[in-house]
Amino acid sequence: MIWLFWVSTCLLSLAVLTRALELEGLFEFGEEAGDLQLVPGSDSTAELPLNGSLFLFADTFDKVYINTNGFVSVVEPPAEEQYLGKMPASFKMIAALLGDLDDSDGRGKVHFRWDSSPEVRNRTAEHVRRAFPRDDPEEPVGVLIVTWENMAARGTPGRGDGLDTKRNTFQLVVASMELSSCAILLYPRDRLQFLSTPVGGESKLLEAGFNEGLVAGWWWSEKQGTYFRTTTDEETSIRELTEKTNSGQNGVWVYEIGSSPIFVAITPGMVTTLPEEDYRPITAEYAEPETEEPDYPEYPESETPTYTEPERADPRYPEPSEPRYPVVEPLQYPEPAQPVPPRSRSQQPQIVVVDEDENLDVNVFAYNSETCALNRHKCSAFADCRDYSNGYCCHCRPGFYGNGKDCVAEGKPQRMNGKVNGRVFVGNSPSPVELSNNDLHSYVVANDGRAYVAISNIPDSLGPSLQPLSSLGGVIGWAFALEQPGYQNGFSLIGGMFSRQAEVIFQPGNERLSIKQQFTGIDEHDHLVVSTELEGRVPAVPLGSSVQISPYKEIYQYDTNLITSSSNRDYTVTSPHGGGGAQTRSYQWRQTISFQSCPHAEAATAATQQLSVDQIFVMFDADNHLIRYAMSNKIGSAHSSLPEQNPCFTGRHGCDINAVCRPGDGLRFTCQCATGFNGDGRYCHDVDECRETPQVCGPNAVCSNQPGTFRCECLSGFVFASEGRTCIEETRPVDHCQRGSHDCDAADRALCSYTGGSAFVCSCLPGFVGDGRVCQDVDECQQDRCHHDAFCSNTQGSYNCQCRPGFHGDGFQCRPREKTPCERHRESAQAATSSSGIFSFFRPRPAVGQYVPQCDRHGAYEPTQCHASIGQCWCVDASGQEVPNTRTGPGSTPLCIDQAVTPAPVGPTPRPDVHPVAPGTHLLFAQSGKIEHVPLDGYDIKKEEAKPLLHIPDRVVIAVAYDCVEKMVYWTDITGPAISRASLSGGDIIPVITTELQSPEGIAIDHVARLLFWTDSMRDTVEVSKLDGSQRRVLFDTDLINPRPIVTNPAYGRLYWADWNRDGPKIEMSNMDGTDRTVLVKDDLGLPNGLTFDLEDQQLCWADAGTRKVECMDPHRRLRRQIVEGIQYPFALVSFGRKLYYTDWRREAVVAVDRHSEKETEEFLPQRRSRLYGITTTPTQCPQGTSCVKNGLKHPKVNGGIELILTCTCEERFVEPSVLLLWQFG
Questions:
Q1: Residues sharing a CB contact under 8 Å with residue 1226, sequence separation 6 or more, in sequence order
Q2: Does the CA dihedral 529-533-539-540 come out positive or negative?
């Protein structure tokens, strides 16, 4: 009765098991639960005696120590400086979520207790049973419960801006049993709100796991024991603590952490769920009566935890008398692939794409009489080709099995993917149910023969009636069945290319169903590919009914290129709520499998083999329209004999899911990691062939590591040769200049010219000399290019000429400058008092008491004039006339205003075809409550000179922009919310827009038309106003979800913005008056956070935090290219010359990217580490226009009232705008 109650409970809660864990799903905690509370602090410890023993690794303990920093230890821990950031530690601990945590602010608390109540013990036992459905676990005698509630990261209490809530809540439950202990780790949804803590001045990721500490080594020495990490060095592994599971419910993780000395490894739970992105929607775990298996997982995924065992001795295995063999299963699917391109790939990229509506009418491959010399590439990468007298055959190498055409590693799990089509009548219905490209997914654990199958999008009218057809996908169970001694499963005999036709006759109604399946081999992802067609009628099974299929045996008859089998199968249908009782029905099953074997090699296959299928579980999930099957499969003798007891043949071993079980004498066995994995067999980790053998793919190829194997892909411009292994140059013409794959020097020094075919020539730009591949600057100053009365200064690719003082001109022509009135006045004053005679050839000198005017370097009157002889000073106007009432006496100087207009400087004049980087450019970036500026030296960031520009401690600044005309900085803040501005040279903050804002996150300026544009991600608008905030209008308020970055192209009157809507990200453009709105980019976008426009090259570039790429596009020709990939989390982006600069949230840095070399070149980390937001540049002069708007260009009205008229004149490639902005109403 106990198991019946347990099954009923699981069935009633099927829809709950795979949901994310809510806070209410934790074990009860707090004062009302009888908890003790840890003393608040940042490194507090409390001792808790246990009313029982706790096993951890091979030892037992009767007390534990609870610590603030997210762990429980069995000895009193040292100071946190000795283990934080320095794991593995020297002492035994269970790290629920280790970091520098703090609960001293009154909100955080650490609760703990030892609980022996039946309710808690029963609940704990249920978690353990779900995690280990194959075992018969002991009942807990006591339970340790520790809850860390609302813990903060020490030293980072939060900014108070609402963007970062920094509270983590999680729970550790340790079940103590007579012979073992299990740890249950619970991570509620949305309760892990920070992933790292500051440790020693650096940001360190939180980590979870089980640490053995120091253990005895040789000669009384000590060594570091096992550190079993359940997280990795990637943030993703911490986030997935709430999103995945090994116990049947997301956010709940179960591990056996210690037992008797027979077996001391950490054993993860076996029941995992699939992430929603793989199989939508997520469904509940399997449940069935105890006579079968009480709980079966959805398709396991292979996110194997990190397992570090330095100097570990040979593993110890359980004695035969032990009640179970622990199985270590990883947590998500492996994604293996062949290390060489599959047969069907001939061009780069080497990926096979099958359209969903494509008819997969694929014939099995036929051997011919050719030799290995020409056909070796038709064999698997893991097979050898062998010549025979009349042909060749492929044979899998040791460690692999299959037919030679397809080979997979022994012991490795296998997946099958495909589509299901057809028409099926249900019961007496006159209309069929149509199936069209329904997804079929299957997974088999090869080393124990357990297979799982799921078919999606099954309607309620058909789903319940498909439950009896477990063999619909169970063919993968036969293909990868657990082999008994001397017998082979289907894949070992015929590989993965065959056709299957089956006929099902149901009794007593005589309904018939035809099943046709075409298996097309292993694809590049190491998945077996199948297409399925159903045609016929099945008996009706009411919705909500459950189906149980009895274990059965099926005889397979083997002949040349043909396999047949038949069986009778019984199944029981139980009506929902027990109203209709249970009915036992049956059907006859006949199938034929056709394949093409190699006729040249002798086959050693038994004429008959028996497939034994038991532990069958079927379920139709009506909520998610999924039909699921699970079964255990063994292939062996057709004659009755005593069943094999060796764990390798029963599947009851403790080998890793990526390991093969090797039987020994009696019940002895060993575990050996599958090819492509290393380890002791109990735990296997992937071998990175690309790192260990960098040249494994040969020249002109890139190696990509995969679980258990690797893939080779040819570089751009290369394809695989006919033999499928060597990358050769592509024969089709390639414009390397356009693609950027040329070897010319950088674009600011050389020009790449396409000459047809795949040819190109490199030539140095004017001002440089070389062969085009290496160009060096010419020092024109050595060539006397400037006038002899001018200074010459060399620059990269150019030079400047500037006339000397006293001369004026463009530097190429200089002539003496005419004297100003002040200079003539000064000379006349000096000449009038000059002496004659023997001293007359000396410089004229004024007489004592004579006033001589003072002139500045431009020849204008100094605003303050002084007469030293009489000790008086006064102010003068531009003509030198004294300003009344300004004269002062001795020892005093008036404060005079310079009323003279300084003449425009002449020169230095750059070469007309070169654009040198203007000096004095700065980067401005926002960092929460301040805007910082850092100067650029050319393109290099002068990190040591970074300084704050503006402090706004109670604001969160998001976007920044710069007006190059008035030298004003504009920014948005989302706490006001407001848009404001200030002068770059200092002064008060000037509000621009303060009303009707919610979350302004993007801002842009048109310095020509003197307009301000911004986006509001909560109002979902794109808006415009004049720079002072007047004449505000909404340009767009439809088809926007999360608009953020926005930029302008004043030369063409265009506006660009990005919307990071997760369901449909896009980049759009329009004219500045709102007309011609167009989606510019919508494919291959994730989170386009940053956007910038290079006016000189007319390139639109964006940084995407979803695809982790920086890309650029010519919006006129729609030419798109990738700049860099693999970046972390960019937020904002700005272009300056050949460089792109972006802010990164995770790195908390400004990162520089060279667009020409397509590489990151520099990183700047501000002194105060926190998230960086918007970024812009402050050029010393406005950008040069590449074209001019035609005189009288008139934009049509939009939104009932904006009309924009622009006129331009073009001189020396500068746009000098005269702008008339008219707002019309009505």
A1: 1200, 1201
A2: positive
**Phi, psi (degrees; rounded to nearest 5) at 668:** -80, 150
Q: Note every long-range contact of 804-810, with CB atoms under 8 Å and residues 24 or more positions apart, other chains counting.
A: 805/857, 808/906, 809/906, 809/907, 810/906, 810/907, 810/909
Residue with tokens 């794109």: 1022
Say if residues 721 and 734 touch (Cβ distance below 8 Å): no
Strands 872-875 and 922-926: unpaired
d(CA 478, CA 494): 12
Instruction: Give the residue-averaged pLDDT of 330-336.
Output: 34
The one-letter amino acid at 860: A
Contact 76, 45 (CB under 8 A): yes
Q: How far apart are CA 291 and CA 617, in angstroms?
A: 11
Q: Within its chain, how far is the Cα of 751 from the centroid?
A: 36
Q: Which two tokens stand for residue 426?
A: 């249900």
Position 51: which residue type? N
8 Å CB contact between 1191 and 1220: no
Handedness of CA 408, 246, 328, 444 (dihedral sign): negative
Angle between helices 118-131 and 2-12 (to 10 degrees): 70
Cα–Cα dist 915/894, whole Å: 45
Q: Is 1092 left (phi over 0), alpha (psi -120 to 50) or beta?
A: beta
Which of the four pLDDT bands, split at 50, 70 and 90, describes residue 1184? low
Q: What is the pLDDT of residue 117?
A: 93
Q: What angle do CA 1067, 1070, 1076 make, to 5 degrees?
A: 120
Between strands 1021-1026 and 930-937, the pairing is: unpaired
Q: Give which of 861, 860, 865 is closest to 888, Cα–Cα.
A: 865
- 534: nearest Cα among 431, 432, 417, 429: 432
Pair 330, 301: CB distance under 8 Å:
yes
Cα 247 versus chain centre, distance: 26
Tell me if 591 sits within 8 A of 576, measured CB to CB: no
Amino acid identity, position 1222: L
- Going by C-beta distance under 8 Å and a sequence separation of 6 or more, which residues neighbour residue 658? 302, 304, 330, 334, 411, 412, 413, 673, 674, 677, 684, 707, 708
Non-local CB neighbours of 458 within 8 Å, separated by 6+ positions: 435, 438, 466, 620, 625, 626, 627
Q: Which two tokens stand for residue 402?
A: 């299959």
| 297: preceding bond cis by omega (within 30 degrees) | no
Distance CA(706)–CA(688), nearest Å, equals 8
Sheet arrangement for strand 1214-1223: 1193-1198, 1202-1211, 1214-1223
Q: What is the pLDDT confidence band of residue 19, given thresholds at 50, 70 and 90? A: low
Least Cα distance to 402 among 298, 301, 526, 512 occurs for 526
What is the pLDDT confidence band of residue 896, given thresholds at 50, 70 and 90? low
Distance between CA atoms of 184 and 182, rounded to whole angstroms?
7
Task: Answer whether residue 580 shows pLDDT above 80.
Answer: no
Write a three-state SS string for 808-859. EECCCCEEECCCCHHHHHHHHHHHHCCCCHHHCCCCCCCCCCCCCCCECCCC
As a whole number of angstroms, the distance between CA 259 and CA 268 comes to: 14
* Radius of gyration for the alpha carbons in the chain, expressed in angstroms and rounded: 39
